[in-house]
Amino acid sequence: MDFEQLLVSYFNDDTNSKVKEACLYALQGKGKRIRPRLLYSVLEGYHIDKNIGNDFACALEMIHTYSLIHDDLPAMDDDTLRRGRATCHIAFDEATAILAGDALLTKAFEITSKNPINNSIKAINMLASCAGINGMIYGQTLDIEAESLKLDYEQIKKIHNHKTGCLLACPLAMAAIIALKNDETVNKWYNIGIKLGLAFQIQDDILDLISDSETLGKSNSDIENNKQTICTILGIDEAKKLMLDLYEECENEILSFKDFDAKYIFEIIDSLKVRKF
Length: 277
Ligand code: GRG
Hints:
The protein is mainly α. Helix content is 69%, strand content 1%.
């Protein structure tokens, strides 16, 4: 079973409903699956069977997908295009989209809480903190509050570190937990993930400026909303330089792990550097 089949298989035994259809619709859009790929790459780097991480990889993709559904709602960014097709509330309706987001978030904890590995509770706790009120949700709150404010670099970075960074740091930290690494190593991976998240977000902001919504598969809403980004503060050239520096710092920090084969995660980082959407 490939990852796409695995992801939807978690809904096989659920009662058919409009909300289930909406969950599957949102999950089956053309997502890059970066968070699951990152989790698998760290397990592989530690020479652990990557399938041990399946529940955690799918839970991450479910939480990420819920955040996209809710972020696209009229009360948030009010977007109509996501993953190359109509956003969930346009394809279904607002109430169904809200419930689909809720269902995906809940499903993530339903499936991980059944996982029998030794450190599963610790991994689930990491997932909850990264997604929760001090993590991604905090980032979204800061982002909403910032709409009418003029921000400096540090303030924007704080938003990105929470809104984007936490859910990109989560797969690295969870994989280290699954690999039974100590807290110091888990924290190191987490901080690498936050840095990777910042590079990823700067790249997203650059793509938002230079690309079109058809290529991106989503609305270029930052431009439409006159949103401040690291690009608008530093300019595209400086932003690109910062992004490449951040990716390089991540790579150097990863190389400092003596018991880790970096080739799998480096393949992902290389693909991120040249991504077009
Ligand atoms: C509404 C609870 C809630 C949270 C919203 C993730 C998020 C926080 C909002 C989505 C909009 C956004 C620009 C978030 C920054 C993170 C980011 C770049 C998301 C897009 O992730 P990709 O590129 O998406 O991995 P795909 O579709 O490829 O999975």
